């Protein structure tokens, strides 16, 4: 199937809300996964304080391995369900590309737990899009999907990570940050595959070099 703007969706991935779709649907990170992740971080902290070769350390490692297995299974299940639902629902699916190599090199846990989910999700989405004959479009990670106003194209350079609401001083738009990003991701993706004409600046500047 050729990509089409109709029935297309932009996906923004996040920590609190796992996905925000450009048609306003959000899917939260499941609580039970969060709980196990927290437990794992705690165990790792404990482990770092144990002496190498000690009995307690061995027990802790086993415990940690069990928790990891549990987390992996729960996450697989969750990601399977979400990616299947999206691949079935939409014909053209647009998301940001992820820096896989950087991710694999990053062994620091707190961040990598989320990264692993993002990467696994993208991979599943790739398989499922192929399976259902849908199009997956990846856009550059450095496209300013968060800072761009989805209404007027203004770029808000001072947007902070903690700003959950995007407020555009130019057109007055007040919108959920992730929802704004997902709309931009959709638009940038559609421009990339030639389905939407880029507007004059600044959207054009934002998407040049793709
Ligand atoms: Zn605006």
Protein architecture, described:
The chain is 50% helix and 14% strand. It has 6 helices and 7 strands. Strands 3-2-1-4-5 form a 5-stranded mixed β-sheet. Strands 6-7 form a two-stranded antiparallel sheet. α1 runs antiparallel to α2 (55-89). The longest helix is centred in the middle third of the chain and has 35 residues, at 55-89. The structure holds zinc ion.
Q: Which structural class is indicated by helix and strand composition? A: alpha/beta
Report the total helices: 6
Give the end-to-end Cα distance, rounded to a whole number of Å: 22 Å
Helix content: 40-55%
Oligomer: single chain
Shape field: globular
Number of strands: 7
Ligand inventory: zinc ion
Order of helices and strands: EEEHHEHHEEEHH
Low-confidence segments: 106-110, 203-210
Give a short overview.
The protein is α/β, with parallel strands linked by helices and 210 residues long. It is 50% helix and 14% strand.
Task: Name the descriptors.
alpha/beta, binds zinc ion, single chain, 5-stranded mixed β-sheet, 210 residues, 6 helices, two-stranded antiparallel sheet, disordered C terminus
Secondary-structure map with pairings?
Blueprint: E1 8-13, E2 17-21, E3 26-28, H1 31-49, H2 55-89, E4 92-96, H3 100-105, H4 109-131, E5 135-139, E6 165-167, E7 174-176, H5 177-192, H6 203-207
Parallel strand pairs: 1-4, 4-5
Antiparallel strand pairs: 1-2, 2-3, 6-7
Zinc ion is lined by residues 149, 151-152, 154, 168, 170-171, 173.
């Amino acid at each position: 199937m050729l990509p089409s703007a109709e029935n297309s969706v932009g996906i923004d991935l996040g920590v609190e809300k796992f996905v925000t779709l450009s048609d306003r649907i959000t899917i939260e990170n499941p609580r039970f996964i969060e709980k196990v992740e927290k437990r794992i971080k705690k165990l790792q902290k404990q482990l770092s304080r144990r002496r190498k070769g000690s009995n307690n350390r061995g027990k802790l490692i086993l415990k940690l391995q069990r928790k990891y297995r549990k987390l992996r299974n729960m996450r697989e299940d969750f990601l399977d369900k979400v990616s299947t639902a999206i691949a079935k629902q939409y014909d053209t699916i647009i998301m940001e590309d992820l820096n896989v190599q950087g991710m694999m090199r990053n062994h620091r846990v707190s961040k990598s737990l989320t990264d692993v989910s993002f990467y696994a999700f993208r991979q599943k989405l790739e398989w499922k899009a192929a399976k259902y004959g849908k199009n997956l479009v990846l856009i550059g990670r450095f496209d300013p999907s968060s800072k761009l106003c989805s209404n007027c194209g203004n770029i808000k350079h001072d947007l902070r990570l903690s700003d959950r609401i995007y407020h555009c001083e130019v057109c007055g738009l007040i919108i959920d940050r992730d929802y704004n990003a997902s709309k931009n991701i959709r638009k940038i993706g559609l421009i990339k595959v030639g389905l939407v004409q880029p507007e004059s600046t600044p959207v054009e500047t934002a998407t040049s070099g793709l």
